[in-house]
Amino acid sequence: MRTMSMRTSMRRGAVAAGMMALLALAGCGSSSGGGGSAAATGSSTAATASADLKTADTSLGKVVVDSNGRTVYVFDKDSAASGTSACSGDCLAKWPPVQATSGNLTVSGISGQLGTIKRPDGTEQVTLAGMPLYLYSGDSHAGDVTGQAVGGVWWAVSPSGTKITATAAPSSSAAYSGGY
């Protein structure tokens, strides 16, 4: 595991990019809304996740999880590096954003570029490969992947930041009955 301040990560960003294949770690840099900065600031509430990210083995293979082991998802209606999230209103009740909760981001096993975007409420949402990250309220335990393929638009995410389109156990999303 490593913890990097944004200032330190900016200096190491160029070096990390060249060494990414060797080290399998993302360089974290600063940006304004494009999804390229390391976790910055934000508030922590019961509906938010810790910004600490790691990997775990699930029925979908190796996926990104938060510090509590909950699977992290991406949303097809988001656009990489757009600096915005398409999930708002009722969507956020089921799909809370992974929020940056401090000036440091602790990661382990993540190889894609990490960053943040500013949400309309002023909080910072963590991104991976430019895509905003979310949790699924239907995942009640570490390793659950019940949000996989919900509505054909929600996907667990690999350590590189690509969506995983494999399906989990046949009943993994059958219990979902809401919108997004």
Explain the overall architecture.
Helices cover 13% and strands 21% of the residues. Mean pLDDT is 74; it is low at 1-51 and 170-180. Strand 2 (53-58) and strand 3 form a beta hairpin. The protein is of the alpha+beta class and 180 residues long. The strands form four sheets. A three-stranded antiparallel sheet has the order 6-7-8, with no helix packed on it. The chain has a two-stranded antiparallel ribbon with strand order 1-5. The protein has helices at 6-23, 90-94; strands at residues 2-5, 53-58, 61-66, 73-75, 104-107, 114-118, 124-128, 131-132, 154-156.
What's a concise summary of this model?
This protein is an alpha+beta fold and 180 residues long. The protein is built from two helices and nine strands; from the N terminus they run E-H-E-E-E-H-E-E-E-E-E. It has one domain (2-156).
Layout: helices, strands, pairs:
Elements: E1 2-5, H1 6-23, E2 53-58, E3 61-66, E4 73-75, H2 90-94, E5 104-107, E6 114-118, E7 124-128, E8 131-132, E9 154-156
Antiparallel strand pairs: 1-5, 2-3, 4-9, 6-7, 7-8
* First-to-last CA distance: 33 Å
What order do the SSEs take from the amino end to the carboxyl end, as H and E? EHEEEHEEEEE
Uncertain residue ranges: 1-51, 170-180
Shape: globular
Major β-sheet annotation:
3 strands, antiparallel
Spatial sequence of strands, sheet with the most strands:
6-7-8
Keywords:
180 residues, alpha+beta, 3-stranded antiparallel sheet, 13% helix
